[in-house]
From TrEMBL:
Organism annotation: Mogibacterium kristiansenii
GO molecular function terms noted in the UniProt entry: S-methyl-5-thioribose-1-phosphate isomerase activity
Protein name, per record: Methylthioribose-1-phosphate isomerase
Listed transmembrane segments: none
Similarity field: Belongs to the EIF-2B alpha/beta/delta subunits family. MtnA subfamily.
Catalytic activity: 5-(methylsulfanyl)-alpha-D-ribose 1-phosphate = 5-(methylsulfanyl)-D-ribulose 1-phosphate
Length: 353
């Protein structure tokens, strides 16, 4: 198991702590999310981010909400509303709804069976831990499957952060890179800085550097050049929600990389735990794309404005990569290949591909 010192989500003495990723790479600070409102704010403001990590935080968030209810009123009430509230924090990553729905299913079944509130609370805690452990295990398997697609010394391009910070343990798209490092693969990784919030420069570069991976940060607009120069043998990207036909939403800019990869004959792999597959979304058209405040473009993080105050900004946080540009989808149940409507159905039916 990967031994990193930066768990994005941590439960200690039944209190929830989140690594404040807005402060990285300069400061490593945990914040306590003591209420469901704190969890909502931490997700919305990107203290915790990355699809699986958001789901794990939301799973614990539901437990925290129930615990506070029970302590304050002697009764767990309003968990459905708390779940609705959490699901509104960010719309694109389906892991959030996945975790909330798992918790509500546990709660409703036990409540209807007349289980005591103290026992329900205990089960909600156990379910949150199970969601967390499932993601950890998925990342480990995804890392193994992903590594089977790669060869030592390869040049690999990645976008945003789909590592341990965005998930747990090895991460998804960065999983085979971390695992390859442990096994002496000596990859040469190019990390897109990932405007506007710089998850690539701040988080991926930091995370890979911690693991002694050879990582080079590039501006997003350099990706085509590094591909043309022959530096890139494979592109690895995470996913926030994959539709049943294999269209996958990920950080804004991902789809452009996939289109370029096709032009340059470079394989484009998407790393997608089953908690990120939404079979109710038929195509990418059904995936809601979060649009964030334009201020993120204007001021970035902690800096002076870089554009006039009164111009408009358009700040979609994700885009959808059409399935035709995705060479393979790496899940914890194996590597899905086109046609994805068939291979993903198999994955979700619980069989291996
Ligand atoms: O806005 P973010 O930082 O939450 O966006 C994260 C991504 O786009 C990741 O690539 C995605 O969540 C996959 S994480 C395994």
């Amino acid at each position: 198991m990967m031994n990193n010192n930066y768990e994005p989500v941590r439960l200690e003495d039944n209190r929830l702590f989140l690594l404040d990723q807005r402060k990285l790479p300069n400061h490593m600070e945990y914040l306590e999310a003591a209420t469901v409102e704190d969890v909502y704010d931490a997700i919305k403001d990107l203290a915790v981010r990355g699809a699986p990590a958001i789901g794990v935080a939301a799973g614990y968030g539901m437990y925290i909400a129930a615990k506070n209810d029970l302590n304050q009123s002697g009764h767990i009430g309003g968990l459905e509303q708390d779940g609705e509230f959490l699901m509104q924090s960010r719309p694109t990553a389906v892991n959030l709804a996945y975790a909330v729905k798992r918790q509500l299913k546990v709660y409703e079944a036990l409540r209807d069976a007349g289980t005591s509130e103290v026992d329900i609370l205990q089960k909600l805690l156990e379910e949150a831990v199970a969601i967390h452990h499932k993601e950890l295990e998925s990342c480990r398997r995804i890392a193994e499957y992903g590594l089977s697609l790669l060869k030592p010394e390869m040049g690999i391009l990645t976008h945003c952060n789909a590592g341990g910070l965005a998930t747990t343990g090895y991460g998804t798209a960065l999983g085979p890179i971390h695992l390859g490092q442990e096994r002496g693969y000596n990859f040469h990784v190019y990390a897109d800085e990932t405007r506007p919030l710089l998850q690539g420069a701040r988080l991926t570069a930091w995370e890979l550097h911690q693991s002694d991976v050879d990582v080079t940060v590039i501006c997003d607009n350099m990706a085509s050049l590094v591909m043309k120069e022959g530096r890139i043998d494979a592109i690895v990207a995470g996913c926030d929600r994959m539709a049943a036909n294999g269209d996958g939403a990920n950080k804004i800019g991902t789809s452009g990389l996939a289109i370029l990869a096709k032009e340059y004959g470079i394989p484009f792999y998407m790393f997608v735990p089953t908690s990120t597959i939404d079979m109710d979304a038929h195509t990418g058209e059904d995936i809601p794309i979060e649009c964030r405040d334009g201020e993120e473009i204007r001021t970035m993080w902690y800096l002076e404005p870089m554009a006039p105050a009164d111009v408009s900004f358009y700040n979609p946080a994700f885009d959808v990569t059409d399935h035709e540009y995705i060479t393979a989808v790496v899940t914890e149940k194996g590597i899905a290949r086109p046609p994805y409507s068939e291979s993903l159905r198999k994955v979700m039916e619980d069989s291996h591909v």
